Amino acid sequence: MITFSSEKVFFCLPFPLIFRGFFLFNKSLFLWLITFWCGWVLLGEESNAYANSTDDSPKRIISMSPAITEILFELRQEHRLVGVTEFCEYPKAAKSFPNVGGILNPNIETVLTLKPDLIIHQHDSVTVEKHAKNLGIATLSLNLTTLDHILKSIKIIGKNLRVVSQAKSLSARLSKGIEYFKSRLKDRPRRRVFLIFDDSQKGMRDIYAIGKGTFLDELLTLAGGENILSPSMVLYPKVSKEYVIAQSPEVIIEINPRKEPPQKDRESSKREWQRFPTVSAVKNNEIHFIGADHLMIPGPRVLLTVKQLAMALHPDLFESTVGVSQ
Length: 326
Prior knowledge:
Elements: H1 6-12, H2 18-25, H3 27-52, E1 61-63, H4 66-74, E2 81-83, H5 108-114, E3 118-122, H6 126-135, E4 139-142, H7 147-160, H8 164-185, E5 191-197, E6 207-208, H9 215-222, E7 225-227, E8 238-239, H10 241-247, E9 251-256, H11 263-273, H12 280-283, E10 287-291, H13 302-313
Parallel strand pairs: 1-2, 1-3, 3-4, 5-7, 5-9, 9-10
Antiparallel strand pairs: 6-8
């Protein structure tokens, strides 16, 4: 309960001195007038503050990337979404939004129907940018090619959606995870790795690898690996059997960006590799398989990919998930 001391109330309020005599004659009425006056001032200030806090941030967003969709969900801004691409499948709730096609073949009619006030896309989505410009729809272009770019993009989204604190929190959590792996592996020698797509080596004819300068190569480095491919190669080169034999990687990792490969497929692949017994990874049974839908998505689940790679390369250090939470 708030109480008033007659003398303190009188001398603290900016009233003319003439009100002192009025107060002495009618204390109850005077206190009622004070209450009314204070309430009117507070109401006026609140109204002005509300009127001046216009939120012009986007309310109807189309996400043109699985990574962007996941970031919006992590920031708890999915209520602003009105459309996503056909590849946005995580979290499950993302699949409930209208499908606007892909980055190469967006459904313009659907986009127009959804009446977006912002389209968020990756920086290399030229087709999306062109169509949005022709339609007069605002766009936000994000570079998600490296870990540093991902952290910056999260903050850019936070600024544009007026959720800066949430964006800072997510960015800080990911940065802490990155530092965890760096600290954990700083004294460990890097293991030489051949990183390939798991369905590319059937019959050992066409082996497509993940080269240096790619997003996955950066994650491999963070996980304590060293890509055996030359920097002069293209990002996703077709590699000959002779090159693999000559390089003799310590570890071979086959990745499936969709799902975990079944055991029979793993056994079949290992039998194929037995044709090259001189390769160190084959000789020491260091052939690993990683399958998950987040492997190729440069978004908030990136540390899960690093953890899986690190567990394959340094299982003695990463037998548990301590230090990594997503």
